[in-house]
Amino acid sequence: MPTAKQDLGALGERLVVLHCACPRCKRARTLKTLPPNFKCADVICDFCGYLGQVKASASGEGLTPPGLLLGAAWDPQKQRMDSGIYFPLFLVLVASDFGRFSIHYLSADLQMPELFLRRAPLKATARKPGWEGFRYNLDVVRDRLVLLAEGRLPRPRSASPTAQASLLAGSPS
Ligand SMILES: [Zn+2]
User: 133 C-alpha vs ligand 1 centroid, how far in Å?
Assistant: First the structure.
């Protein structure tokens, strides 16, 4: 069963696919989600091959990015940075209480090593002892984030199958 964090992540990816055109080829509705175990990216453009990462975060009012945000495993990120490889980032802020979201974009060209903060290894008592992750230090890129979209969250899962289907197909609501 997916955890609440995975649900938030999946919602973030769905919102990006629905609301964002491909930043490279400019086509609408060409971004598709990649399988959850695909490591370096979360969405791909099925026209031009553009790859992007999506990070979703719960947010009080749904518009102001947090200063720090939990990332992923440190080692692959460090190896990519050592090779000069950065991926564009869609940051999705979700304000469940208000039913609203916003999507912010950080171009790969505007990222630098300071954005990625290494975390201390997990304690011996953790589920994955010794595992090292990183946090995004969004404070250092605050003036580089671009607001791409904001709007109302899709209806919850209790919505009728028809409403869900039309939402997934991207019909105007
Ligand atoms: Zn594209």
Answer: 30
Separation between Cα atoms, residue 20 and residue 30, nearest integer Å: 9
Q: What is the pTM of this model?
A: 0.85
Sequence letter at residue 56:
A
Query: Does residue 173 have a pLDDT over 90?
Result: no
| Structural domain boundaries in the chain | 4-64+86-109+140-169
Q: What is the pLDDT of residues 115-138, one digit of tens each?
A: 999 999 999 999 999 999 999 999
CA of 3 to the centre of ligand 1 (A): 31
Q: Cβ of 130: how many Cβ atoms within 10 Å?
A: 9
Residues with Cβ within 8 Å of residue 165, at least 6 apart in sequence: none
User: Is the pLDDT reported for residue 165 higher than 60?
Assistant: no
DSSP-derived secondary structure letter, 112: -
CA of 28 to the centre of ligand 1 (A): 8
